[in-house]
Amino acid sequence: MTILAKYTKLREHYHRIAGAGRDPFTVKFDAMLSPTEGMLNGRRTILLGTNNYLGLTFDQSCIDKGVEALKSFGTGTTGSRIANGSYDGHAALERELAKFYGRENCMVFTTGYQANLGIISTLVGKDDLLFLDSDSHASIYDAAKMTPAQVIRFRHNDPEDLNKRLRRVADHPGNKLVVVEGIYSMLGDVAPLKEFAQVKRENGVYLLVDEAHSMGVLGETGRGLAQEVGVEDDVDFIVGTFSKSLGAVGGFCVSDLPDFDVLRVACRPYMFTASLPPSVIATCLRSLERMQEEPGLRTKLMANSKRLYEGLRNKGFQVGPDVNPIVAVSLPSIELAITFWNRLLEEGLYLNLALPPATPNSQSLLRTSVSAAHTTKQIDTAIELFGKVARQLNVQPALVQTAAE
Ligand code: PMP
Fold it and tell me: Is 260 exposed, middle or buried (0-12, 13-18, 19+ CB in 10 A)?
């Protein structure tokens, strides 16, 4: 038995997926032409699975700021902020994020994954209780594994179920932290945050919202779902990422909690990893500004999202419950999803293949994410290609859940 023998089943599963055509886990782009187009195997390919919601990855002013910082500060910080110190940019980005959210404090992390991992696992200790939505992102589940706190899962997007579970432990003396997401990353479904906020108030617990997919997407100024539904005062911690709307990499948490800064010397995924390169920080500072300067990006993003969502639904595809930039098409089997994904790629459309066990209710998903930078023509081409491949595979009738309008 080798040390990797425990992965035999996983390897078999992987070979089955990769063997059906292109390996979805090792797609390699030859070049990026724009936020919405890349070269893949010598072919121009529409990018419809990048989470590049505002299309800022090629924004000239962001690139210029990044290059400037690269020249002034070098390629990396080569260590963590508590060991090697911070650069002006790190502090400036934290200040700007705190200002943007109207909060006292902000901590920037090297990835969004580490922001969740670090903040959640450090906030709750052994006497505390951590309540997670059952469809939580891997970074939240991994945080749950790291903390000594007792972890209690509640039904996905079900405030009543959370309330019931909180009432059962009403006498528990420790602190209680509830974690939900704004927009869920697989199906694009939105949390009933108003109702969660009410449960939070009634039970006197802390509430953390991961706005990774809703920052820059929802809310009057792009602060996310809490802003959109008017419950920001009820949210104690907002976690977000720079890898989606801001077009770079990194993560953060903002809060008004006094003494929040103590986490800088308690939170291991902050303390024991290198901080973000100044060039990344500089592009994020600029993209955060761009996001605020141009609310029209959000309007365009939503118009594109609606067009794709309705276009696919009208062709009879089963899509998620809410209209937003994550539009996921559910297919009846893993095999069909793999074949469909390969055919779309051959036609010049790239999106994400999401399969069980990584998906809610073990669904086989073709997950798309829309950008403000997509043209109407690109969205319409994507819809047509979905229809074309469905006809080629002769599977259209099996897909129809709602009658085509
Ligand atoms: N939270 C959610 C809900 C996510 O979907 C992701 C990544 N897709 C993360 C956190 C982690 O963010 P990052 O990729 O920036 O590390």
Answer: buried
Q: What pLDDT, in 10s, does the model give residues 102-119?
A: 999 999 999 999 999 999
pLDDT in tens, 262-316: 999 999 999 999 999 999 999 999 999 999 999 999 999 999 999 999 999 999 9
Q: Is 243 in the pocket of ligand 1 (CB under 6 A)?
A: yes
Q: What is the pLDDT of residues 191-231, one digit of tens each?
A: 999 999 999 999 999 999 999 999 999 999 999 999 999 99
Grouping H, G, I as helix, E, B as strand and the rest as coil, residue 183 is strand
The closest residue, in CA terms, to atom 15 on ligand 1 is 112
Q: Which residue of 114, 139, 141 sits with most ligand 1 atoms within 8 Å of its CB, as the best mutation to test the pocket?
A: 139
User: Residue 274 domain-assigned?
Assistant: yes
CATH number at residue 240: 3.40.640.10
- Closest residue by Cα to residue 79 from 270, 249, 254: 270
Q: For residue 317, what are the CA distances in angstroms to 156, 321, 331, 360?
A: 23, 12, 8, 18
Q: 30 with 65, same domain?
A: no
Q: Which of 265, 293, 321 is the last residue of a domain?
A: 293
Residue from 235, 154, 153 nearest 200 by CA: 235
Give strand pairing partners of 106. Answer: 254
Provide the ipTM.
0.99
Please tell me the distance between residue 324's alpha carbon and the centre of ligand 1 in angstroms: 17
Q: Whose CA is nearest to atom 12 of ligand 1?
A: 112
DSSP string, 314-335: HTT-B--SS-SSEEEEEES-HH
- Domain with 391, as residue range(s), is 9-47+295-399
The pLDDT tens digits of the residues spanning 349-400 come to 999 999 998 899 999 999 999 999 999 999 999 999 999 999 999 886 445 4
Which residue's CA is minimally distant from atom 13 of ligand 1? 112
Q: What's the distance, CA 251 to chain centroid?
A: 11
pTM to 2 decimals? 0.96
Could you identify the atom of ligand 1 that is nearest to the CA of residue 244?
15
Query: From ligand 1's centre to the CA of 364, what distance in Å?
Result: 20
* Final residue in a domain of this structure, among 235, 270, 293: 293
Ligand 1 midpoint to CA 106 (Å): 18
